[in-house]
Amino acid sequence: MPAFRRRAGLLAALLAAGLAFASQGAGTAAASGADAAVERGARVYERCAACHALDADRTGPRHCGLLGRRAGSVPGFPYSPAMRRSRIVWTEASLDRFLKAPLQALPGTSMGYDGVKDERERRDLIAYLRAAGQGPRCKPPE
Amino acid sequence: MKPAVDIGSIVHAIPRRAFIAHSGLLLSGAAVALLSGRDALAAKAGHGAESDLRILNTALGAELEAIAAYQVGAESGLLQKPALDLALTFQGHHKQHAELLSGTIAKLGGKPVSARDKYAFPVDTLKTQVDVLRFAAGLEKGAVSAYLGAIPVFGNRDLAKAAGSILGDEAMHWAILRNAVGDVPVPEAFVS
Asked: Exposure winner among A32, A101, A122, B124, fewest CB in 10 A?
């Protein structure tokens, strides 16, 4: 019994120390968690590389400036009529709905893609799009 | 990044006839088989046909861009034989994919998209042969994902099958290009 108490006391001390450490590092952990999400999102974004780029219109429109942009509004891009008429503004919520099942979210879209079904992958992808949108490739030319 | 292995030795390790002498013949055979099914495809066009046409045209647009990308790579002066032969062979496959898609779209009553006058490729970041091959690998990986995402949404299952056939070819391109730059050719058991 005394040995067990000693072990229990040691465990409690270690847990207390661990909690204190975790509390001190909470800010850093949150930042690195966000970085990790962006990094995972960059890997998910590789799936889009046949049709999309951040800073150029390809088979699909450019993604720089996506969040906050009205759907179907990149000048000169040949959108489907459905996208042009959609009145969607790309927010995290509207992107999440669209990315989950594009053809169901917006029938008539040219994005003939089944969707990103995993909720965390969509969250990571949107985190990446947000971060990349503020990155060097999306800075307007000086 | 410096390749972990010599590109020439890896590309030479693949029998040249596999991607030069015979590939056109073999792929033509496959394409003919797919094209010969186009009447059946047309006959089945109905439910979801408009959606299928949009998907086919999106795929055709991407194939046309891939053809242009390989052309940029071939003309860059950065690719040496045998990597140059590899790129031209893969470009030839994309031409066959585009031809098949274009013909199918027309057969189904649609209007195939044309190649753009100009494509925006990140040419300023392509300084070496490895850069070009990695860029091509990225496009091929994206193409695999695009076809994978298209297969479940085709209304016509024959079109889904044709898309699966193209996916398989582009997955092989991706693996060979990864291998050529010294990456693990097939990094995972599944593509996504």
From this structure: B124
